[in-house]
Amino acid sequence: MTKTTKTTTQTVRINGARVRLVTSTAGKVTAKAALPLEWQLQAAQVRSLRALPEYGKLFLLAGDQNAAKRGRKAQAEALAAGMTAGEPDLRIYGKGGRLLLIENKVGRATLTDSQRTRHPALSALGHPVVVLRAVSAEEASTQAVALVRSWLSSDSSAIAA
Asked: Are 6 and 61 part of one and the same domain?
């Protein structure tokens, strides 16, 4: 077996599950479950938030997927219709014009350049963005439910994180 000069990582599907394969410089391959994709965290949050008894009475939500892959025509149409790079993943609309913005990140993933520009611009207008970091759909759901319940029971200025 030929030795490689660096460790390599590859994410593949095995029996339908995403698996991260790491090959060491010595050629040893290890496999472990891959982290979820960001959209999977968001989908779990949406399911959990819509299941709350307060949903539809005290808050509504809307999600974005600005990072989704689109063909050239679909991308042009989305931009013309107002899609904006860096927009947070979830918008939580509350009574009295309150707005909670949530950005999801998997693990230690960093904000994109457009997010590093857009989020402070939104905050400057009085709409802070809360970044939730999770490594599982369950963790993301728990965090979102706790955040929304805290936000609903407090003054909107308390979510200035």
From this structure: no
Return d(Cα 138, Cα 79) in angstroms, integer. Answer: 33
> Residue 119 is part of which domain span?
38-159
Inter-residue contact 123 to 116 (CB < 8 Å): no
**37 SS3 class:** coil
- Domain match, 46 and 111 both: yes
Residues 12, 21: contact at Cβ < 8 Å? yes
Q: What is the pTM assigned to this prediction? A: 0.80
66-97 pLDDT per residue, tens: 766 778 888 788 778 877 888 999 999 999 99
**Comparing C-alpha atoms, which of 56, 127, 131, 147 is closest to residue 95?**
56
